């Protein structure tokens, strides 16, 4: 195997810069573990940006992908496919009852672009309300909907028709939600923004406002979806007062690492979509569809939702031992550990102890987005390590 220095030098030479990278090369994964080119083993509490929901290389997913790869890698939506039929049936079967149809695409940003487009088609209006601190992706419309740090600036010139409201403040939404507004879109738990959750009544008030004013409610569940919060979705869950939006967008953990995004929509929204209104070459391809079905089956078979809930409780209990922790935000395995001071030194010290965590736009918040198969002894390893930082 190539040495780390050699791999890193090659990437630096031949690729444009994206994120600040950790000084490791990930070569193999199994469950919650990442194995590096140097033969080290890291506990992964970040899941490669929340993607490894079923853990790394879950055998059920890997076997399904191997089988599908030997049958048909890809054909577009010009033909029917049993792999696609199966994935759509499975996804709709676990979704809140009113979300009856799916549109498959390739990423979170693409799912959000299409969600906003559908809202505009359904209402004949143009404006979209999103929230300060929310992140929705990097393509033109999604980045224009992202009122977080420098991101919106990066998308200049922005797509017109975007309004910013305060997360958790229904009056600020009400003031903007006039007859020109097609949709209100939110991350129900703002992840990059520092793992911020609103009071349950905020979600209920948004639903009521949308119903009163004919506005489409979109939940961007790219991070919160597919089991991460201990429910299949934030939509319909107790944490959000069982509110179900008109559209839910998904990506990240949906394909266990095979790129795939989706919009789940109500029949009312679906009734506005005609042939050729939506499209994508790769969306709904067979390999991605096999990944979706196997991912959802693996979560179900291994009772991962129950696991998330019990391991979260253990983490919340044990984290009290860490003096510098002042609060734990979020739900399930989307957690923000807030420190009395900067989180970055903890992120660094944990990495030195071979534990991968994430940061956020709140400098005091360390973000955990681990695989849904994380166990209590892994939490113990994390908390023991934090106590020595
Ligand atoms: C909440 C949310 N929405 C959308 C996106 C964009 O997803 P993608 O990077 O797959 O385009 C992200 C990515 O981090 C996200 O966290």
Strand order of the largest sheet: 4-12-11-10-7-5-6
Order of helices and strands: HEEEHHHEHEHHEHEEEHEEEHHHEEHEEH
Low-confidence stretches: none
What compounds are bound to the protein? pyridoxal-5'-phosphate
C-alpha Rg, in Å?
21 Å
Counting DSSP H or I runs of 4 or more residues, the number of helices is 14
Main β sheet profile: 7 strands, mixed
| Range of strand content | 15-25%
| Structural class by sheet pairing and helices | alpha/beta
Q: What's the mean pLDDT score? A: 97
Helical fraction: 25-40%
In whole angstroms, how far apart are the ends?
Answer: 32 Å
Question: Count of DSSP E strands?
Answer: 16
Shape: globular
What would your notes on this structure say?
The model has no long low-confidence stretch (mean pLDDT 97). This protein has helices at 4-14, 47-50, 59-71, 82-94, 108-123, 140-144, 151-154, 170-176, 200-213, 267-270, 286-301, 304-318, 344-352, 376-387, and strands at 26-30, 33-36, 41-44, 99-105, 127-131, 162-165, 181-186, 189-190, 196-197, 216-220, 247-250, 261-266, 325-331, 334-339, 355-356, 365-368. It is an alpha/beta fold. It has 14 helices and 16 strands. The radius of gyration is 21 Å and the shape is globular. Helix 4 packs parallel to helix 11 (286-301). It has a seven-stranded mixed beta sheet with strand order 4-12-11-10-7-5-6, sandwiched between helices. A four-stranded mixed beta sheet has the order 1-2-3-15. A three-stranded antiparallel beta sheet has the order 13-14-16, with helices on one face. Pyridoxal-5'-phosphate binds at residues 49, 107-109, 112, 135-137, 187, 191-192, 220, 222-223, 251.
